[in-house]
Write a structure and sequence with these properties.
With 369 residues, the chain is an alpha/beta fold. The protein has helices at residues 13-22, 64-72, 92-112, 151-169, 191-196, 216-227, 250-257, 266-278, 286-294, 301-305, 315-326, 333-347, and strands spanning 3-8, 28-35, 53-57, 76-79, 118-124, 174-180, 182-184, 201-204, 210-211, 213-215, 238-242, 248-249, 261-264. Helix 3 packs parallel to helix 4 (151-169). The radius of gyration is 21 Å and the shape is globular. It starts with a strand and ends in a 22-residue tail after the last helix. The relative contact order is 0.13.
Length: 369
């Protein structure tokens, strides 16, 4: 018998894309989609043979998922419904319940299903937080100095804790946790993409954070590799940071989008973020505001050397594809580039941008006597 894959979160773009892609993988007999709402994007198989697809509309907070796993004899579970935003509800408590309680129900159903052999969980690099005392680069083993105190990042940290508990109770199940950087692409539907869609980008005065991105194509490819048996000389179980090589400064992102920035003091930006959330103009959460202040960079050595995957798109290339799909901003990038070239000629050559982040984290300083 072939593999039966259960995919949660298929009503979102990433879940629908992954479900459509995994249907054509050799050895997959059936794909079962689960979400609280029907998919907005049709989960269509590509040209050629594809495994059958079945959709179940249910809430993961309810125990009905156990029946679905038993009915279809699921052996691979890919959990993609942990998200910063809710479907059909913008209430923060409802989103938290969906993320945390929904994951607990799913893990409980997997624990009782003896046929489950593989579990893949989509997480986020947000679990590291964003603080001024953070190391230059986060590896998978480093703990944040200032853990997330709320929001989606705290949800993801709690979800990872429950997943570690499940792995201890079911050592026979191959468990993979993928910590994705901000996912971008032509169809990105994340809160950060909403921020970049603003005609003018509010920024924190005196800060130019380093950011990382992963292209949606690479995200789907990593999920497919994690849901399959490991390739020779690779290991696809454990925790992995997923991001394109290199970094971009927030100011560089604004120039590539042709968006002017509006530097403000941090209290003013915080007040604007609250106002934007209340008016539902854009969801700039406190954790996202910290990211846009202090930035975050993660090391991807384990993804390349242990997991065996090198992203096709670097961080600048992934963001360039995202920017091309957004169309020109108020300030055309060509004119901004011409101005930057003229300033460079007047002020001298610019220092090269930082290379792929594989540096040793900052060492703690000794206290002064």
């Amino acid at each position: 018998m072939g593999v039966v894959v259960l995919v949660t979160g298929v009503a979102r773009h990433l879940g629908a894309r992954f479900a459509a892609e995994v249907r054509r993988r050799p050895g997959v007999d059936r794909v079962v989609g689960v979400d609280v709402l029907p998919p907005g994007v049709p989960v269509e198989g590509p040209d050629g043979p594809a495994a059958p697809y079945t959709f179940h509309q249910l809430d993961l907070r309810r125990p009905a998922v156990s029946r679905v796993i038993a009915e279809h004899r699921v052996d691979t579970v890919v959990h993609l419904s942990v998200s910063a935003t809710g479907l059909g509800s913008t209430n923060r408590s409802a989103v938290k319940e969906s993320n945390v309680i929904g994951t607990m129900q799913l893990l409980g159903a997997c624990q009782k299903a003896p046929g489950v052999r593989r579990l893949v969980v989509k997480s986020t690099t947000g679990v590291y937080g964003s603080a001024p005392r953070d190391p230059a680069v986060f590896t998978e083993r480093l703990q944040p100095k200032d853990p997330p105190g709320g929001g989606f990042a705290k949800d993801a940290a709690e979800v990872e804790g429950y997943v570690r508990g499940f792995a201890r109770r079911r050592p026979d199940v191959a468990v993979t946790v993928l910590r994705f950087a901000n996912i971008v692409g032509p169809h990105a539907d994340t809160p950060l993409s909403e921020y970049f869609a603003l005609p003018v980008l509010p920024t924190v005065l005196g800060y130019d954070p380093r950011l990382q991105f992963v292209h949606e194509d690479d995200a789907v490819a990593v999920l497919c590799r994690a849901a399959d048996e490991p390739a020779p000389d690779t290991v696809n179980t454990g925790t992995f940071n997923v991001a394109g090589e290199g970094v971009l400064l927030l100011s560089q992102c604004a120039r590539r989008l042709g968006r002017p920035t509006l530097p403000l003091l941090l209290p003013a930006v915080s007040w604007m973020a609250v106002l934007a959330r209340q008016t539902r103009l854009v969801d700039v959460s406190p954790e996202q505001l910290r990211l846009l202040t202090h930035g975050r960079v993660v090391d991807t050595t384990r993804l390349r050397e242990t997991f065996g995957y090198r992203p096709v798109f670097s961080t600048p290339e992934a963001f360039a594809d995202f920017a091309a799909a957004r169309g020109p901003g108020l300030l055309p990038p060509e004119r901004l580039a011409a101005v930057a070239d003229r300033l460079t000629a007047l002020l001298g050559p610019e220092e090269p941008a930082p290379a792929a982040p594989n540096v040793v984290p900052n060492r703690p300083r000794r206290p002064r006597s």
